[in-house]
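Hello,

Following up on my earlier ticket. Below are the two sequence lines again, exactly as submitted.
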Amino acid sequence: EVQLVESGGDLVQPGGSLRLSCAASGFTFNAYSMTWVRQAPGKGLEWVANIHHDGSVGYYVDSVKGRFTISRDNAKNSLSLQMSSLRADDTAVYYCARHNVYKYDYWGQGTPVTVSS
Amino acid sequence: EIVLTQSPGTLSLSPGERATLSCRASQSVNSNYLAWYQQKPGQAPRLLIYDASSRATGIPDRFSGSGSGTDFTLTISRLEPEDFAVYYCQQDGGSTGTFGQGTKVEIK
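Thanks for your patience. The regenerated structure is below:
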């Protein structure tokens, strides 16, 4: 059974940093690209970042470029999102999802991030 | 970046009725790699349709997708009580992805 479990969400002050993790199991992790998607309170889904199966390339939505870094450890079946210079508009539930031929077929339950003083 | 525009914003229907949701792309979607998701309150999104018209594993056949190029449709043939939710379309060009803003299907 495919499982994705996010962790690391927290309350953080504006300008602060946070690292989210996603533990994957039930599939060959190093065969798939992985994606982070977020959802601000009461809002729609927003694609945030994607990383190739081998970790060689990452892509980002413009609003997080230079502040967020996506990475993975294929030996540990783990995906990460390092977030810095956090702003109030980064407040959201962050989901990791398996990227399977241009679709996101499995999702974690999400981890909440609140940026507030 | 491809912008996806969904309409209507809200659809008010009764159980048993047919729901037709639209997703329009600002430019042609690569190889029709257009997907639809369902999200219920407090839950993660669930993949319903991929490649514009293929049902994901375990999705009932009352859900169907159609379209190509820039215009796509999700149809729910007969609404069941559990189908009242928010629906999102999504495309991924191989590097970045985008979602539509969502259509809420609510009970009339």
